[in-house]
Structure formats: C-alpha cells, structure tokens
Amino acid sequence: MAPNDSAETNGEATGTVVGRRKKARYIVPFAVAGVAAATIGLVPALAASGDPDLPDITAQELIEKIAASDQEQLSGTLKVSTDLGIPSLGGIASSFAPDAGGGDTSAAPESKLMDLASGTHTLRVAADGPDRQRLSILGEGSEYSLVHNGDDVWGYDSGSNEVYHATSDGAERPDGKHKAPKGVPATPKELAEEALAAADDTTSVTVDGTAQVAGRDAYQLLIKPKQSGSTIGSVRVAVDSETGVPLKFTLATSSGGKAAVDAGFTKVDFSKPDASSFSFTPPKGAKVTEADELKDGAGKDGAAGKAPEDLGALEDFKGLNVIGKGWNAVAEIDVPGGAGLPAQGSGTGDMPAQAQQFLDALGDKVTGDFGSGTVFRTRLVNALMTDDGKVYVGAVTQDTLVKAADAAE
Q: Regarding the domain delimited by 314-408, which CATH topology (the fold level of the hierarchy) does it fall under?
C-alpha cells in the first residue's frame, strides 16, 4: 500500500500543473464545486474492493501522472450519486422553460443533465479523443443520449422521441481539431486538473492509500482545505495506477453524512470504442429541434423565448468582487436593478409558484452589519441575497457568508 506521503501545496508542491494556472487560485471552492457538478457527467463511484499493493508515490508524482496522461479513448458504465440537499430539479427547470410549442424540447442537454444534480443514476460513456464522445443516462424503460461527433451534437430522449441537434461554431483548437461544443462532458483528466490547478497554500494534498475501482488498481489522492468555514470537507480522487486517469471522484461535505457527490466507474475499458458508438440518425417520426430554433425562440407558433444557454448569462451582473481567499472565497455580485428577489404576487416579475416554494424551503432570514437578507442553502454552495439587491455566494457556511457581507460594507 502506498504511504500517506504529503505534499501540502504551497506553490511548489503542484509544480507546473498549478503554477501555470495561478489565476484560478482565488476561486478554489468554486473550481472544486464546478468540477463536482461536471464530474457527474463523466467520472463516478464504486465502493473500493481491496487495497492493492502498489509502488510508493508522492502526491506531487501522482499529480504529475494525471497531468501527463494522454488517455483519450475509453468506454464504460458509471454510477453517479449526488446529494446536494435540494429537491429534484426536473420540475423546477421546466417552470422556467419556454412554453410548449415555443421551440423547446425535452432532448436539449440542459433539461436532461440537470437531472444529475440529485439522486442516483447509471450512465454509459464512450470517448475517442476531443471530437467524439457519447453519454447515455439510463432510465426506467427509457434512455437519454448525448452524442458529439465532429461538428455535430445530438441529444435524443427515447421517452418522448424528441431529438436536439446543434453544430459547433467551427472554432479551432491549437492542434487544428474542433473544440467540443459547450455542454458536452469533458474528460476525467481535464476535470481533475481543474481541481488541482486551483490548489494553493490553503490546501493540503496527500496520497491516502490505494483502492480498486472497476477492477483496476488505483492510488487515492486526497484534497482537503486547511481553513475552517468551508462546506467542503474533502475531495478524494482515485487515479488509475497505469494510465493516470481518474476513475472515481468523491466530494464530502464538512458537515459529514453522505457524500455530496460520489461518482465512479463500475466498468471501464481503455481500448478504442467502435466508431458506431458516435453515429446518430434521428429515428423515424422523431421531432427534431435545431439549436438555432431555441436561440431565436422560434417555435412553430412563433412564441418568443431564450436559448437555455442565455438564461444564465452573467454580462448584466456588474462589480463582481471576491472576498476572502482559498476555500473561504465568497463572490459578491450586484444584482441588475439593485433589488432583492421579487416575492410571489409582488407584481414585479412574479416568480413561478413552484420556484418560490423551492426558494422558501431553502431560505433563512439573516441580519448583520450589511442589513438583512435571505440565505439559500444547499449542502455544498450557499448564497446570501440581501434586501438591497446584492448576492454573496460560495462553498462556505452561513456564518462565513454573513461575515463576508459584513466585511464588504
């Protein structure tokens, strides 16, 4: 078994992997939380079945092994469990979607991948370099597949027999290959590197023994905050000892209990997937919606709407400021218009009843030197919206949010 060699990161421990991305360090919790959210699309969890005897390795060497991995071909089955302490988001998302017939489709990636934010799911994945990936979410009697092949992205919901189609913008990577369109899951290696690149002197990185995942020997990399006040307790990444590919990702909260994200391969194969894995032809009779229809809000009745990717646009938020550092970093955002959330029935852009109930279930009224506001809580990311229209958000506790808001006044 590998020893618990420590490499507490101080700017040297992660070498060039971290050094070349120092600009990300001030948002450690956001990077880790983002990795957790994205990882549920590709990298997931299986209970360890024995501790293999592997050669000793330091944390620095293991990080370099991940960075040096060039494995871009794989296929496998994943089990993903996510418990962020929030209800299922399927119904909530639909309350904000365009009206039926207005160009919306259940096959759009945004509506299906949102389901992975809660509960337990079984997925099948295949990847053959940056231009070909496939992800399928297996349901009871139905399946949703997201296929990226060159310039084309296809989403297919077998339950509704609906198809989503998008094409890339033709943007080129430095190596001449097309970029994967937004919304297509990245490789496990890229996700792990994002977390490691954000590590700084507020972070401890160690090798915490070995494990077996999907029948393969792996080292366990343990990432933990040195600070108190974060909702993140630790991030554990099981790294394949041969290829350097992350096989398992577990994010534990500082409050204990079930992991917030527990995602890992149950089966994995690093040989080249069959080319047919990435081919897709819309089934006969399927309703096909082009991405441009969603962007333009041009449905069959001409109803106006927004593309899903436009709903979260941040260009209207001014004065983004980061308070604190490391795992206790809190983002301060000025809400457009300088007003808090509209109450249901207020007549100022009334919120859908279901969304209002969702927010009420999460929210706690708080006061401080900043004034008063409401904290919306999950097990991982919390947000404080003040009554005068500012938002403070981070992977931090309620007390840390309030202190950040007080410090900003």
A: TATA-Binding Protein (3.30.310)
pLDDT surpassing 80 at residue 43: no
DSSP string, 263-299: EEEEEEE-SPPPGGGG---PPTT-EEEEHHHHHHT--
Q: Measure the CA–CA gap between 377 and 15, rounded to whole angstroms.
A: 35
CA atoms of 118 and 108, how far apart (whole Å): 18
Residue type, 19: G
End-to-end CA distance of the chain: 51
Instruction: List the structure tokens of 61.
Output: 């060497």
Q: Where in the chain is CATH 2.50.20.10?
A: 15-275
pLDDT digits (tens, 9 = 90+) for 10-19: 433 444 444 4
Q: Please tell me the predicted confidence (pLDDT) of residue 220.
A: 96
Rg (CA), the chain: 22
Listed in order, the ranges of the chain carrying CATH 3.30.310 are 314-408
CATH code for the domain defined by 15-275? 2.50.20.10
Share of the chain above pLDDT 90, in %: 44
The tokens describing 224, both together, are 């933990």
- The answer for residues whose C-beta is within 8 angstroms of residue 163's C-beta and 6 or more apart is 105, 107, 154, 155, 156, 157, 282, 283, 286, 287, 288, 289
Across residues 385-408, what is the average pLDDT? Answer: 92
Give the model's pLDDT for residue 377.
87
C-alpha span between 321 and 261 (Å, rounded): 28
Per-residue DSSP letter, 35: H
Q: Which helix (H) or strand (E) holds 90?
A: helix 90-96
171: helix, strand or coil:
coil
Phi, psi for residue 65 in degrees, rounded to 5: -65, -40
| CA distances for 309 relative to 109, 182, 273, 409, angstroms | 10, 9, 30, 33
Q: Which amino acid belongs to residue 312?
A: G
Residue 70: band (very low, low, confident or very high) from pLDDT cuts 50, 70, 90:
confident
